[in-house]
Specification:
It is a single chain. This protein folds into 3 domains: 80 residues, Arc Repressor Mutant, subunit A, CATH 1.10.10; 111 residues, 3-Layer(aba) Sandwich (D-Maltodextrin-Binding Protein, domain 2), CATH 3.40.190.10; 101 residues, 3-Layer(aba) Sandwich (D-Maltodextrin-Binding Protein, domain 2), CATH 3.40.190. Helices cover 43% and strands 22% of the residues. It has 11 helices and 12 strands. The protein has a 5-stranded mixed β-sheet with strand order 4-3-5-12-6. Helix 2 crosses helix 3 and helix 5 crosses helix 11. The longest helix is centred in the N-terminal third of the chain and has 24 residues. It is elongated and about 100 Å long. The two termini are 53 Å apart.
């Protein structure tokens, strides 16, 4: 078969193989006989096969044509399904869409996403769930629709991903404390630390996706390890503890004068957040619309943060 097959000819081929008649095919398709004959000529060239041959007074299918019949019907059925999905009215979308992510991402995403959903698909419900080590399996089982997570955390090449946002770490401390800012490694390690991490199993070590951060956390005095990122700046603002955390998460606290920040005592690479989904949902119109909205919201958030 040649690679320049015109896909618009496939419906003509389907009718020709069914009727085995140029005349009847032309009548069913609403085309002229010369147009159908021309299409048949193009199809013969594309498949390098006669497809229909005259035996006596009737057209018969070649072996190649018989092989094409079943897969051709499957292809045309899928095209019809995609065409129907393309025209789905968002106002009729119902049910839940589940997004797994950490609490600080939900905080950034929830208000603008729900505003858009209420305008476009008011019958749709967005449910956020905590990002845990179980989330990947739940995504594969279709119990989660989308996952927003650090790029290095997800080791599954079969998932589709799209980069959302790059953030960097800062060391935060209370604006009320008289202690010196932990500007060097010695001063940093002298302080007591609050650590934020994904909800690992109880026997898992404190590890993430950035080795430099893991090594530093292993050396410091960690008084608490919690999975609630948004609680970190609230705790730090009213104690003498310090914490390494993504800068965009604490911008409001810095603006209000509750906390201050400095660079980490060592160089720590930025953290890259991505959107993940299963290939089976790639053509779902509601899913596609939601993905595009999430990407758009993060793009606006990123511009504001610069």
């Amino acid at each position: 078969m040649h690679s320049n097959l015109n896909l618009n000819l496939l419906p003509v081929l389907s009718v020709l193989l069914e009727t085995r008649s140029v005349t009847r095919s032309a009548e069913r398709l609403g085309l002229t006989q010369p147009a159908v004959s021309h299409a048949l000529s193009k199809l013969r060239q594309a498949f390098d096969d006669e497809l229909l041959i005259m035996v006596g007074r009737e057209l018969k299918l070649t072996p190649m044509a018989r092989k094409l019949q079943e897969p051709l019907q499957d292809i045309l059925a899928n095209v019809d399904t995609l065409d129907q999905l393309k025209n789905v009215d968002p106002e009729n979308w119902q049910g839940e869409v589940v997004i797994a992510t950490a609490d600080q991402i939900c905080n950034s995403l929830l208000a603008p996403l729900l505003k858009k959903v209420s305008q476009v698909a008011p019958a749709l419900t967005i449910r956020f769930t905590n990002l845990t080590r179980r989330s990947l399996k739940q995504l594969e089982l279709d119990k989660i629709d989308l996952m927003i997570a650090p790029e290095g955390l997800i080791q599954n090449a079969s998932l589709i991903r799209r980069s959302l946002f790059s953030d960097h770490f800062v060391c935060i401390y209370s604006a009320k404390t008289d202690l010196k800012p932990p500007v060097d490694l010695e001063g940093y390690l002298d302080r007591t630390h609050i650590v934020s991490t994904i909800d690992y199993a109880n026997d898992s070590p404190i590890t993430g996706v950035i080795p430099e951060l893991d090594e530093l956390r292993a050396k410091q005095n960690n008084i608490a390890v919690i999975p609630y990122y948004l609680a970190i700046p609230l705790i730090v603002a009213n104690t003498e503890y310090v914490s390494l955390i993504q800068k965009t998460l604490v911008e409001k606290f810095i603006e209000y004068g509750e906390i201050e920040y400095c660079d980490p005592p060592i160089e720590i690479p930025p953290i890259e957040l991505s959107l993940f989904w299963h290939p089976r949902r790639n053509s779902d119109p509601a899913h596609l619309w939601l993905r595009n909205e999430v990407v758009s919201i993060f793009a606006k958030h990123s511009r504001k943060s610069k």
